[in-house]
Amino acid sequence: MSTALELSGVTRTYGTGHAALTVLHGVALAIEEGEYVAVVGPSGSGKSTLLNLMGALDRATEGDVWLAGHDLASYSDSGLSRLRATYLGFVFQQFFLLDRQTALENVADGLLYQGVRRSERRRRAEQALERVGLGHRLDHRPAQLSGGECQRVAVARAVVHRPRVLLADEPTGNLDSAAGAGVLEFFDDLHAVGATIILVTHDQRIAARVPRVITLDDGAVVADERRGTAA
């Protein structure tokens, strides 16, 4: 099994001098391909900062972050954009859908940076929407969809380019329990066919269903458990 993501001695500090704030302290982690991981911890523990570093959305102040064998520190901003478009899918608490576009168009846009022809983008977007149970809502705009449906559109957009790693930051935070359960069941299905998923959540009930749970507190990893066995 190969390593999807690896962090070694990662520190993230914002600001300088007396105003400096260190959010992560020497984090070391390795996540193998095919793992399903929940990152938990109290508010302000550094969960979202960690996800941003894993997702090449931010840079470490110290230490190394490797994505699928690529040293992220060696890439320019445009290079990081290409890596994100190739290897990563993102699902956030906010849906970030374009109001004037249909569900199909929103998902197809997930392939824009890969140089895929328009006809192929639409074909693959339709397949992704069918996979999340929205094959009958292709031409609906976000205002015509429920919150749960909008999040499923966002998930379809995140996976349409078949990313190596799916990163999700509180993806059920704006959903009712039924809609949230539907999204989590889809994540379970993705994991069952080999997807690597990293899920940030404050909800211990969600974390309890995930095979590996990493706990952050005050910017440091304080626990790393697999199926109830401390690592």
Number of helices: 7
* Strand content bin: 25-35%
- Overall geometry: globular
Number of separate strands: 11
Low-confidence stretches: none
**N-to-C span:** 18 Å
The run of helices and strands is EEEHEEHEHHHEHEHEEE
Q: What does this protein look like?
A:
With 231 residues, the protein is an alpha/beta fold. It has a domain of 160 residues: Rossmann fold, CATH 3.40.50.300. It is 31% helix and 29% strand. It has seven helices and eleven strands. The protein has a seven-stranded mixed β-sheet with strand order 6-7-8-3-9-10-11, with helices on both faces. A four-stranded antiparallel β-sheet has the order 2-1-4-5, with helices on one face. A hairpin with a 2-residue loop joins strand 10 and strand 11. Helix 4 crosses helix 5 and helix 5 packs parallel to helix 6. The longest helix is centred in the C-terminal third of the chain and has 16 residues. The protein is globular, with a radius of gyration of 18 Å. The mean pLDDT is 92.
List keywords for this structure.
single chain; 231 residues; alpha/beta; Rossmann fold; seven-stranded mixed beta sheet; four-stranded antiparallel beta sheet; 7 helices; 31% helix; globular
